[in-house]
Each structure stands twice: as C-alpha cells, then as structure tokens.
C-alpha cells in the first residue's frame, strides 16, 4: 500500500464514515484507560501518575482535534518517521499542543500520536523522554557549562548526547553538525588566505581573523581565545605574521606580540607572564641553534666513536641536565631545533 493510500485510509477511519463500519479511533482509549505513563515501560511511574493525577481524560470536542493532528502528522512525517531526527521533532509538536490546550494537551498529544503512528509511538515517546533528560542535564549543569571554553563545552554536550542516544545522536543533531562544519570551512578558507597575505599589516591580519571567527561563531568566539590560546596560536602560526615578526628587532617584536595578546583579551598580568615565557624560549632557541651549528662542525670533521664522544660532551655543555633527552631524541631521528620557529608560539 502506498503512503498516499495510507493517508486516505486514516482519514476514512477518523471520520464518521469509519464509524458506520463499527470502527472508532477512540476504541483503544476508553475513559481512564490512557495516561502518559501507559506509553512508557515504567509501571511504577504509571501507577504514581494515576494516583496523583488520574487518567488523562479529554473532552468530547477533542476528537476532531486529535483526528486532524493525526492526519497532519501522517502526511508530513509518514514516510520518514523511522528517522530519529524526525521523531525528535515531536518534542516541539508536543509543546505546541500543550500550549494550545493547557488542560487536555497531554492526552490529545498521546492519542493523536498513537493514532498516527501505532508502530512507532512507543519509540518516539522513549526518545522524547531521553530528550527531556538531556534538557534537564543542561539545566542542572548550566553554570558549569557556561564556565567552560566553547570547544570544551561542545565536547561535554556531545559526550552526554552519545551517552543517551548512542549513534542516533549524530542523526538527531545532524543539522547542528552541518552548521559547525560550514562555519569551520569558512574560517579555514580565511585562514588559508591570511597565511599568505603578506600585503596585510599585523593589525589588519588580526582584524580579518577576528572578523571571520565572529561572523561564523557569533558572540561565543571570545571563549575560543582563552581555550589554550586557540586564536593566538592560529594567528602566530601564519607565515605572513612570522615573516613580519622575523624582520623586527627583538624588543620591537616582543612589543608587537604583547599588543596582539592584549587585543585578543589577555589581561595585563597574563601578557606579562607570557612575555617572560617568550624570553625563556628565546634563550633556549639561541642556545639550541648555537648547538646545532657546533654539531654540524663536528659531524664534518669527526666520525665513529670520536664523533659520538664529542657529541655527548657537546650536548652536556649546551643542555646540561637535558643532555640525555637531547641524545635520545637525536637517536630517534628528531632534532628539536630543526623545527620551524614561531615567535609568540614556541
């Protein structure tokens, strides 16, 4: 039977024409026989709700409303109702019904749902219960979530979603993932352009980066700044930025780095501490580059055991307590001072 014929049959059943043949859409909903708990597997909750509230009775006039809702939902969602993302939409539909009928809305919603989708109603109600649990979790953890950096907060939310919904979470929040993917792509394209944009000053480059992030992430973008210095790391990773910083004397270079950090929202104390860290890094790099130059000279003049002994002594002279670590890294083929130098970053 095609979907269109299913709709026709349902319309037939929920109208007076169906009643002529002895069918009533309310036959399974005798007075006092239907409650919200009847739609869930928790019988204790069912008994408690019945004792506290009684059955979810609806007035006679609601029959027409139930019929219309059932037909409307079947026409709109009948062909895709097995999709968890479609089922999740009934959370909003339920709110609409409760808003329109504050006293009888729960009963109307449940009866229309079972009438439209008897094979999926229980599955939908289970999903809605989990959505309510997720929303309650968001409320209970609101302050903690607000204090988290943006990326950490999103990770915590996805962890909870996967815990409650498993793989279906990817389907339920597919639209949100698509939006984040589109934002990421837009920012990535801007970053690729800025990486080679030598015509921009440092201020112009920073402005373009901030504008791209703000446009795609809105007011939440500032939370990214302090999330392990994400934006700072991106900015100082641009080759266009590094080429300008390399061309400056050390004092002027540090002034520019400090100014960028201030523009990104770092406090004066944070800027000061990071500048001190930059100085320590500068000293390590100067020492490391001097070591690499001396090392190259040894490798050109010595071989075998003589070279090994000379390198060991050289590493001790330059790195002292780190000499063993440097030797092990080189034995593994890693030379830390052959890496690119990024001022303001490493």
Describe the 3D structure.
It comes from Marinobacter mobilis. This is Lipase modulator. It is a single chain. The chain has 20 helices and no strands. The radius of gyration is 33 Å and the shape is elongated. The chain folds into 4 domains: 3-133, no CATH class; 141-172, no CATH class; 186-266, no CATH class; 284-346, no CATH class. The chain has helices at residues 3-13, 16-20, 43-53, 62-77, 84-88, 90-100, 105-116, 121-140, 142-147, 150-165, 168-172, 174-195, 202-217, 221-225, 230-236, 239-246, 250-263, 268-301, 304-319, 323-331. 72% of the residues lie in helices and 0% in strands. By secondary structure, it is mainly α. The model is unreliable at 3-9 and 11-55 (pLDDT under 50).
Poorly predicted ranges: 3-9, 11-55
Alpha-beta content class: mainly alpha
Estimate the helix proportion, in percent.
over 70%
Alpha carbon gyration radius: 33 Å
Q: Total number of β-strand segments?
A: 0
Average predicted confidence as pLDDT = 83
> SSE string, helix = H, strand = E?
HHHHHHHHHHHHHHHHHHHH
Number of domains: 4
N-C termini distance: 67 Å
Task: Please give the largest β-sheet.
Answer: none
**Portion in beta strands:** under 5%
Shape assignment: elongated
Please count the helical segments. 20
Organism: Marinobacter mobilis
Protein name: Lipase modulator
């Amino acid at each position: 039977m095609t979907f269109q014929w299913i709709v026709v049959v349902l319309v037939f059943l929920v109208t007076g024409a169906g009643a002529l043949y002895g069918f009533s859409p309310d036959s399974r909903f005798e007075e006092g026989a239907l409650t919200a708990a009847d739609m869930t597997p928790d019988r204790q909750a069912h008994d408690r709700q019945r004792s506290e509230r009684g059955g979810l009775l609806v007035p006679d006039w609601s029959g027409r409303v139930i019929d219309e809702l059932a037909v409307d939902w079947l026409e709109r969602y009948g062909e895709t109702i097995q999709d968890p993302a479609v089922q999740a939409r009934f959370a909003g539909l339920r709110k609409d019904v409760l808003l329109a009928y504050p006293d009888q809305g729960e009963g109307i919603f449940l009866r229309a749902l079972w009438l439209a989708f008897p094979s999926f109603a229980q599955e939908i109600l289970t999903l809605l219960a989990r959505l309510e649990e997720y929303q309650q979790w968001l409320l209970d953890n609101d302050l903690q979530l607000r204090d988290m950096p943006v990326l950490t907060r999103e990770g915590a939310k996805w962890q909870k979603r996967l815990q409650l919904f498993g793989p279906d979470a990817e389907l339920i929040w597919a639209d949100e993932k698509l939006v984040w993917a589109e934002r990421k792509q837009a920012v990535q394209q801007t970053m690729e352009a800025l990486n080679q944009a030598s015509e921009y000053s440092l201020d112009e480059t920073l402005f373009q980066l901030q504008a791209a992030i703000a446009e795609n992430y809105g007011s939440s973008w500032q939370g990214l700044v302090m999330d392990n210095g994400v934006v700072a790391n991106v900015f100082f990773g641009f080759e266009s930025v590094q080429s300008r910083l390399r061309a400056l004397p050390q004092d002027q270079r540090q002034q520019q780095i400090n100014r960028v950090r201030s523009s990104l929202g770092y406090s004066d104390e944070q800027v000061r501490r990071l500048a001190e860290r930059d100085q320590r890094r500068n000293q390590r790099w100067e020492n490391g580059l001097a070591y690499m130059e001396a090392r190259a000279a040894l490798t050109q003049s010595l071989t075998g055991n003589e070279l090994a002994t000379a390198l060991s002594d050289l590493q001790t002279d330059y790195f002292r307590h780190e000499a063993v670590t440097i030797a092990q890294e080189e034995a593994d083929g890693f030379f830390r001072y052959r890496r690119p130098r990024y001022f303001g970053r490493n």
